[in-house]
Amino acid sequence: MIRETFLLAEREIRRNVLRSSLTILGIVIGVAAVITMVTLGGGATAQVASDISSLGSNMLQVRPGQGFHGPGGTRSAAPRLKIEDAEAIASDVSGLAAVAPMASGSAQAIYGNANWSTSVIGSTDKFLQVRNWSLAEGRGFNEGEMRAGKNVCVLGSTVRKELFGGQEPVGASVRLQKLSFQVIGVLDSKGQSGFGTDQDDFILVPLRTFQRRIAGNNYVRTIYVSAKDGVSTEKVKSDIERLMRERRRITHGEEDDFNVRDMKEIMVALTSSTRVLTALLAAVAGVSLLVGGIGIMNIMLVSVTERTREIGTRLAIGALEKEVLLQFLVEAVVLSCFGGIIGIILGLGAAAAGANALQVPFLFNAKIVVIAFLFSAAVGVIFGYFPARKAARLDPIEALRHE
Amino acid sequence: MKPENYHQNTSYKLITLQGVTRVYGQGRVAMYALRGIDLSVDPGEFVAVMGSSGSGKSTCMNILGCLDTPTDGKYLFEGVDVGRLSRDQRALLRRHYLGFVFQGFNLLNRTSALENVELPLIYRGVPVVERRIRAKEALASVGLEGWETHTPGELSGGQQQRVAIARAIVTHPRVLLADEPTGNLDSARSREIMELLTAFNRELNITVIMVTHEAEMAAYADRRVHFLDGVIDNGHDSERKNK
Fewer CB within 10 Å: C terminus or N terminus of chain B? Predict the structure, then answer.
């Protein structure tokens, strides 16, 4: 009987292809939207996570000021960091892989006729290690260059491309603010970050060189600290905080005038916010699925009215109430499942195209595909039931007389 | 297609109506469609039901077809009191014992003649291969061999009614109820339909009860029953024709 019912439903759907396709359009769009949103959202979340771990996942940042606390905060009033702070952290805190103090500014870089506005970062050779950079060519700074503040530099791949094109940069000289810097190395490319900024667009110079020749002060903007593998970043964080409170003479009960940020915390915060965004978008898409369900109910009701005589004939021939109910219900469920399958295919296609366009990874999410399919089946049952019951309860005499 | 044994037992009453009344509405607005009908039909009989519109003949047909139940009185089908059956039980009774032919054919649109004829067999749970064979045979018996794949839209009125008759007799029903089967057809087509009904009545011993207002069609029947204002009009000729 069930097999026959499916056969009848399938025959019914084939009998009116245009109406059937219009009926499922809402479901198709709803399911496709949900699948696209969730798949793209998952890809974006993964992208953000991988961007942050490319900065160094066991990295901490020490900055002056109170960080995110309070409106306005006291960041500008807080005393600056010094190179000595970085040296103290490196010698007094255990379990560290590298410590890199960093300062930055922007400058015009000139080579021959080429001219490129970029940011200049002053740091040590440890910077590459802490931020997971690798050299494509040449070498990093040596001890002597860093201590003496020599005019040497390492180029990000964007700067290399803009200034040198196809030419060999290592050994050449680049002008930065009327000073000549010898290029000693070029970095590998990291590409765009998840936030859309070009990570390769900078020139790295020794910190002392930056302070003396470019910034004209002895400030350090950020101290990057990377923990050794297997060392808890929470412990490192609290050790640094204790040391910095001591060095900055913050008495008990006073608030920190610096902040130590663990990249893991930032990663968690950012990925959870992309997840919330994804859930919101999926919910909006879910509403269109609901609207699709109402569309099915609407068309099924029209179909019941239109087929009143047919229902009357079936009842007269000896169809039971529950058989007519089942027939219409199966019809609605077959339609909505069919819509669901088409929606899943379209949604995955759109997600793949979208992932390509937005440059986020395409992550196939089997769970959401199954959920979307079951949801579309449920929509068929819920919104098909009322019209089906209406059909089943028809009086055969009235139905046969219906024009 | 062999008639089953009890069809030959002519002393047996297949259908008995005893004082059947059908009232629509209640109290002051009550409308009496039937006011005490006594009628019995023998197995294998061909009965023509006649009367003007509003005479109660359609109401009586609905009751005979188990689509409606009497307000008062008894309808016995093979001794079973139909008035006491539930809606589903009456549906099963129709499924297994009755066949219907309507004035407006009531075929399923955009569905082939063969699939239309198969429909009652689907509800009977006849397996697909047997169903095909029986539906084809039924179509051949109404002279529509080779028309299996045509949909109602591609058939003439007379052909559509023949498909409907094939659908009604494919289950070998005990009773075929025909409600003005020739009402929408010209006289040549009408005579073809009446010949088919007569043939099924004679050869398969299927009891036929037919509503008509045309005397020419009623003449094919063994017996004519006239309705007038909700009762059977005994003043009219309602004796049996010699078989």
Answer: C
